[in-house]
Amino acid sequence: MVALGYIGLRTMALVFVDRPPEQPTERRVISLRKANSREVKRYAET
Fold this sequence. Notes:
The chain has 46 residues and is of the alpha+beta class. It has one domain. Helix content is 20%, strand content 50%. It is built from one helix and three strands; from the N terminus they run βββα. This is Ribonuclease toxin BrnT of type II toxin-antitoxin system.
């Protein structure tokens, strides 16, 4: 899954996966990076 949001003035993309059903509130972060222009545009439209 990918989540978009701001850190300061920069739009960031967080890539993560949900953990197994035994731990439904746990998520594992794969990466955090600056969002590319397509992602920024999509985020601004929502």
